[in-house]
Amino acid sequence: MMNKNMYVMMIAIVTACGGLLFGYDVGVISGALLFLGKNFSLNDEGLEIVTSAVLVGSILGALGAGWYTRRFGGRSANMLAGAIFVVGAFASAASDSAETLAISRLIVGLGIGITAVAAPLYIADIAPPDRRGMMITLYQLFITIGILVSYVVDLISAPHWRVMFGLGAVPGVVLAVGMAFLPYSPRWLATRGRMAEAKKVLDQTLEPAMAETALREIQADIERQKNDPQWWLAFRSRAAKKALIITTTLAIFQQLIGINAIIYYAPRIFQKAGFVDEKAALWATLVIGVVNVVATFITIGMVDKSGRRKLLICGLAGMVTSLGILGIAFQQFDRIDTQQSSIQASATPSTTQVDAKTPAINAPVDVAAPKDLPSTAQGSETLAWLTLVCVIVYIACFAFSMGPLVWVLIGEMFPIQARCTGNAIACGGNYFANFIVAATFLSLLNAFGASNTFLLFASISMFALLFVLFFLPETAGRTLEEIERDLGEQLPTSSSTSMPN
Ligand code: BGC
What we know:
Distance between the termini: 48 Å
Helix content: over 70%
Number of domains: 1
Number of strands: 0
Shape: globular
Radius of gyration: 23 Å
Bound molecules: beta-D-glucopyranose
Oligomer: single chain
CATH superfamily: MFS general substrate transporter like domains
Largest sheet: none
CATH topology: Growth Hormone, Chain: A
CATH class: Mainly Alpha
CATH architecture: Up-down Bundle
């Protein structure tokens, strides 16, 4: 018979497979796009549609998951997400036209969006308070592992893009089948009036004293919120409003600080910085993938001891610094680019003019093998290495702070009645911001240059840091019900700074 700790850990690991779906898909598209363009004769616009379809699906999936999870529970929502992802992965692999591919990618996105809401929520429900942060962080760990695995799959299976997409079904199957063996979440059971079953799950997962307290608190919470039978009335409470504002703002910040711009375009950034050789740029990208996984372990080890705030503050400070240095370092390259463009412009007849923007527009295609970058052999070696170090520091800082902690906070901050809808809104906001960055990053690069774009990300990280400093209460070690009570009172760090309520 498995002991309670192992049982809860096993539940968290199976549920965190939802992260694998997400991560695998983030990474796999870069390699697949290289060959899709040729296969379906897609122009840049077509490639952009195929790329962004998954994000549109994720926004819809996340928003729909609020209703679904509330009605059918996190266990069922995760099973559904896994099943939808399997269908989407096979449909993508079998696509015979750009249109079917775009629709298949949208289906994949639906699965990702649902699990982004349901996985952290379900883990938060099952985990004991003193290990909740670590267990939700497993979800982020699996995202990073998914990204890394997809880089490797892309390298090994190229040019077979159908294999790349098809393999995505594996984590989907693990999630859908694995969840079938897990219990319903005790809070969901309690909200459906199934108290005896809720008690049984609490007894299986928590120490006896803790299980009793948890049951009492859940009952009291449900009793208190009986007067608010409609989900939107749950947001009348001060705690729910604060949770909504804090988590949604952080979820949007998580994307606006530029993480996916760096992840998607790392090879280009490295080439621009002076690692002109394609292989060197790809290796550097693989290093990023590894750093992303390894640094997540810092949070796994520390989140429940040192708390959420400390990790977020250190991580964001590191991101502001590394992005700031990156911005200043790239001023040099932007200058070289501008000089090169003007030399080319004066030497080339206007009809065949080599547009400095062309590589950026084609960017999604060359993520795995960027061939078309203006080579910056002139870029000094020192600056190339400085760029690599800065990008590594940035990724590491993200991986131990904004990466996992946004999911942890989304999973744990909402009062019981507002949880599913609140999670859905925060996750929807996250995917929407992801979509905006993906859609505008290349235009930003073209319009303002790499240097200013990094400085913009640095400034946004600074705002995120201030937001955490002034508005985020510590939630480590508190039960979900205690967090609700804390949020119902003045925020500890901002007695003079009023949050809307
Ligand atoms: C973010 C993703 C990102 C990933 C990188 C996640 O927390 O939501 O957008 O690609 O971290 O590790």
